[in-house]
Protein 1
Amino acid sequence: MDKFSYMGNIDIAVIDQMYRQYKNDPDSVESTWQRFFEGFEFARTQFNGEFSDAFDKEFKVINLINGYRKRGHLFTNTNPVRTRRKYFPTLDLENYDLSEKDIDTEFHAGKEIGIGKTKLSTIVEYLEKTYCTEIGSEFMFIRKPDKINWLQHRIESTQNSTKFSREEKLDIYHHLKNAVGFEKFIHKKFVGQKRFSIEGAEILIPALNKLIERGAEKGVKEYTIAMAHRGRLNVLANVLQKPASNIFKEFEGEEYEESIALGDVKYHLGYGNTIKIPDGKEVTLNLTPNPSHLESSTPVIQGIARAMIEQQHDWDNNRLIPIVIHGDAAIAGQGVVYEVIQMSELNGYKTGGTIHIVINNQVGFTTSYLDARSSTYCTDVGKVTKSPIFHVNGDDAEALVHVVRMAVDYRQTFHTDVFIDILAYRKYGHNEGDEPRFTQPLLYKAIANHPNPRDIYKKQLAEEGVLSPDEAKNAEDALDEELEKCLEKAREMKKVVIPQFLKEEWAGFKYAHEVDFTSTIETGVDGELLTMVANQVNTLPDEYTFISKTKKLFNERRKMIREDRLDWALGEQLAYATLLLDGHPVRISGQDSMRGTFSHRHAGLVIEDSDENYIPLHHLSDKQAKFNIYNSPLNEYGVLGFEYGYAMVTPNTLTIWEAQFGDFFNVAQVIVDQYISSAEEKWGVMNGLVLYLPHGFEGQGPEHSSARIERFLNMAANNNMHLANVTTPANLFHLLRRHMKKPSRVPLVIFTPKSLLRHPKCVSKMEDFQKGGFLPLIDDADTERKEVRRVVFCSGKIYYDLLKRKEELGVKDIALIRLEQLHPFPAEEVKKIIRKYSNNMLTLWVQEEPENMGPWYYIQNKMKEYDVVPVTRLASGSPATGLFKIHEIGQDELIEKVFRECTCELQNVYCGLQCVIGGSRKEILKQHYYFDEKGKS
């Protein structure tokens, strides 16, 4: 391939220097410049006194050529139903200091576009056809010459078009016929039902099919696809080949098959299939489920793609291409798109390039594109990563097929994103029952009289003698008959069938039931192995030099191992190490996760005087599974969505997303609401993602205290999530190992500690890791059953505050009970505790959070039979105070309430109640029994 320079971008002084270099040694400059200087030398001998003017005009023509390359996209015929906005300056000759007088002059600058020395009129005509017809090309902002050269050559050598064969044209028509016919059939048979049709942009269907075929030619075996509701049913039927009968049943069905609890609307459902393309190759397609949050599946599909590339395609990203289909309003308006694009070339998240296709309806629900963005194009976000962008007229099927083929070739060559903007329209309103003329009367007047892409192409093929009107009518009638048969089959089906998404990946796993959380699973590990691994991963290799603080840290860890007091970091480390040795890969991702926000993990150690990391967990055994940990970019929505997608494919991998502080997950609330908590009930999707959310009230203010436990508990039902707030390193160890050893997977949310990372009492002995399993509830080991008059339930870090005060006071009649598992609620374990302490007079729930936050309302519901009294902060709209002193006062008040002695009028009597936290004597007498000191009523 010839290389093309960009002369119009280079300073004259640079050209002069290169010319001098050429004079000394012609081979010292690239071939393009050699040819240019040859022409220059020739011109000197021909023009004599006119040379200076001719040379000057050559550069003016080069500037004109580069003007078309840079700005030709602004003057295209890419809008099928609107007149394009006017942009200035135009590409008129006068704006490049040329005129009509130059039109018949021949210029060597024609070599720049591969047509040799020729007339200016020919150059302009060539440029108009190449850059200003039904395709607009944006790529001159790219900074790498090899990419620029590739695109220029591909675009200019073909005049940005493909000469399709008769068979190719008929195949394009076949896909258009299917796309248009499918929508018309549904519109006729299911009157008034929402389907979010693709009408107006039906050329998406041939484009996707041709994209898939082109990729298969280039070695692609699999495509992962994300898209919102617009056109989804058509893509399912005519690209993924989902049976039309199944889709029709979703319009009329009354009951789901047993595997789906609640289900979802038909245009949100996912689907996977392995299809056979015309050349006989088999290609796997997976369209991920998507809620009404339009771009939420954009990060999810990237995670799915990354997992498949790693684990199914041996890290070869040539074998899988992610495709994301956007709406114009969504790609411009949804911030998660920007997040994902910024992630696209990072080591922890790259997938080798995504092909982004925009169904540009030129309207968002009712909002005009002029009110939907500040940028010129909805795809301008693609310029962040210097990705090529193509704008295509939605009426020109051949132009779009040409562009998608080029996009695949570019992606497979350079492994970066490509953006394709299909300028089309939406035939109806936001849905088929919506009236668009309320807000867009002029646009919809034009749309009403506009033929669909099938009919436009059919007319073109008739004029070319490729397809007669009768042949087209017969093909369309045959499609109608086929769809009628599918409808009849649908009406014979008893239930709506929703195949499990990624079923092969989840073979051997079952949906979670209560027994998965109550049955005993031994997760202990042999003591010798634990000791060996603990010392191995905490011994620094001699061949590397580390900073003194790293050496000190690892010396302290080995000392803790010798003294048999393993802290949180060691417990976590041992969980990962033993799972890796068991064959379970581990992936951790989050802001500052490698070191840990609170400097406790140190999973990657920077070698002194270098940027290299030494990762101890890479060096356990030749047979260990892979351990990967990544510091994520500073976003939550994109990264959490990515990790959720990764975990959708990898049930045998411990996949963890860690928030910098617990409440930072609220930036990714969409992923929690629409995927983590509800995907199984909606779509039958299983997922074992683990969330680490640092939680604890320690005076750090409203944004660094609460992981919003109440939000998760509010969404917890039907074993949909596993929520835990563990308080010992050993219990964390067993929890993580249990998560990977049980036969089902649900998202596991762990409210992780901050101050407990270094708390002297938050340690475990090695024997605690060797036996038993995860404890959903931990009893008070330091109290005699018969002495206890007050049972205090709590969860998380406040236990250690209560324990400290209990030891200071020497209290023996109060039992501190830790709820390590919040959901599913350990009802049987709680019942055993209540029965055990039969002399109990008062049951408290203690939490650091305000009354309207934290677990209290959930606990109140789950323990209503036990007359539990809450000890909390006052209800508040904000989780915590910003002043440390006020925090300390509030924390002390909470603790003191728990240990306050009886203050009612009945001296030396246990009132069993609210006098310790407030309440009148009248209420006490009315509602509670009283006991003397001996426990007799």
Protein 2
Amino acid sequence: MTSAELCIIIAIAVYLLGMLFIGFFYCKRNTSAGDFYLGGRKLGPVVVALSTEASDMSSWLLMGVPGLAYFFGIANAAWTVIGLALGTYLNWLIVAKRLRRYSAQLGAITIPDFFALRYRDKSGLIEGIAAVIIIIFFVPYTASGFAACGKLFTNIFNVEYLPAMIISAAVIVAYCAAGGFTAASVTSLIQSIVMTAALIVILVFGIHTAGGWSAVVENARALPGYLDLSHSTDVVSKQVSSYGFLSVVSTLAWGLGYFGMPHILNHFMAIEDGEKLKVSRRIGTVWVVISMAVAIIVGIVGYAMSNAGAIAPFNSASEAEAILVRISALLSKSGIVPAVLAGLVLAGILSSTMSTADAQLLASASGISHNILRGVFHIQLTNRQEMRIARITVFAVAVLGAVLAVNPESSVFGIVSFAWAGFGAAFGALMLFSLFWKRTNKYGALAGMLSGGISVFLWKYLVRPLGGSWDIYELLPAFIISSLFIVVVSLATAKPDEEITEEFKRI
């Protein structure tokens, strides 16, 4: 083992042990389901801001975005980032405060809870269907995170993918099951800092290695359409394709997903004081915009490094997702201090994955133990029993995610985009109508969830393959379909009870 590899191992080991320490530190502070799933609504504005955005970005930020920019130029990545930035800001601006106030008044600690209590649905249908949707889409989403960890260690140490992926998943499960939402949020706060440091280190080193900023720009300009927002360029075939209006609208639609992301919305519900969400909004939005912009630049810098012969070129978009890993390997060969910095970068990639996977595991576990067992089947559980079942379900969901992550060839970007569409379509429109339209009733809510979730599958696998004008990101049409079903079904059925309407007005 070389000294560089030893430094990287030490840096990553220290990081992982730190995450485990935090998890077990908060273990005894969870005395109820509300503590385990929502941190007792005691989080401060800075923790909420950075933990929310860290859990949002996932490995997509440090692997998906740079890989996309490297292989196709800035069009796809840039329009996606613009859509996400707008979605992030609007979610903080129009959803966060209302959801915090409404959920607290209702006593809701999960998103299925909120929908069921908002519409006084005692049948368990809304809560049960919402919980099933969370499980359906979060399991592959979590699997993409485990896969990212496995790819990371395989690329660094040339170890077998499967054991590397399983060990990574085990660490996430350990601190998540032990410390619950508070531990996940505090670790996500730290992880956002590590992710930021990783991007800065790679950016500075990459520009220097490529021959300076002017060399980076010259390499990008030499490839037709690479820096053009209206064209996409394949760096291998050098083929330039149009990135037209439909593609732009389709990509901007990523922003709609924010309104339905349970692991993001849960953070809004967890802040100690809803009035402090303005501070969280400013911090979170600035962090997201800067981080995503830097991630795109890293992809462009990586292309220049390949042209300069510093790193080997990538042959596919999936391979290009390992660009930070390859640059880190080069950095580690420059001495002890650079090797430690390389370890920091690799820990940053782990951070981006773990900060999302832990939030997703908790949301999935709450869907099973709190919403299905307690809410749908009305199984009476003590706080201790519910927390024990919650920890078991965290483990069970992680095992299922690990099974789906067995294939190392799966694309992080592809998996995340589908799960993102699922949540945005099933919950996004309904969340907005729940917070802004008093006429929405439980029948419209059910119709909106089901039509949105089903439409994602139908559009993805039946309509989109037709190509041409039908080749639109499934989130956009599914979101529109969900909205139409909510409005039409709500108006076609009885008005909500006066109690629900008055509660809506008051809150």
Protein 3
Amino acid sequence: MSLNWIDPSEYSFNSFLLLERFQIRLMLNWGGWGNDKELWRRSMCIALNANPVVKWYFIQRCPECADIVEELTKDGQPTVDAVRIREAEVYALQSVEDFTIYTTPARMAEQCDFVRGWNKQRLFELADFRGKTVLDVGAGSGRLTFAAAEKAEWVYASEPVGTLREFMRDRVTTEGIKNVRITDGFITELPFPDDTFDIVMAGHVIGDDYDAEIAELTRVCKPDGWIIDCPGDSEHDMKANDELIARGFEALYYHGSFGFDVYCYRKRIAKQNH
């Protein structure tokens, strides 16, 4: 399903020069997020052969995928048909529209439904943030981070995409925010000691490997702390996440700003030997 976050024709194919290694690896291994993998392969073949700098960057930045890049482009002949090249570029950009919009974080507040339709009071209803030390995992452009910073003592934003980290750092500097720190980190490899945070929160990052991800969130959460999943409002109905509920999370429902069902989740963390 398309997220409808971008008009890909507004983006240069050179936007892919801002992708992280893990993003390149995911895109190439999955063949984009769409169902027509053959169309994706044909489009990437044309686009990469027409943009040798992007091809070079993919190979250098993500050497474990060099064979995939070479395989994608080996049978393609360079084309001088500018219209055909642009169609291929646009399709490739659309195929990973989340990664594409992450190259322009300032647009997310206007174009991403989970940001522009969200009311920060929904976060404050899930836990008491006053005086707390908080971690935002997969912080993105800082939707949860900057809301929590209004009440928490400290907020740490862990985000593996460099353009998003830089966007948050710029906002911290521009607005003179003193209680936010930005760091790199994946949900399964958080760069913090055990039992560090009163609240560990996320929005759209739990779900690839529930057990491993929740185990890592639990590791850095203090005993009797909270893990929160607060995805933001959507232009589509959400369904209750049975995987989270089965793992002890409480589901909290509200009718979203776009008129669709929204679910948030929270879990109080009890730890043995404390």
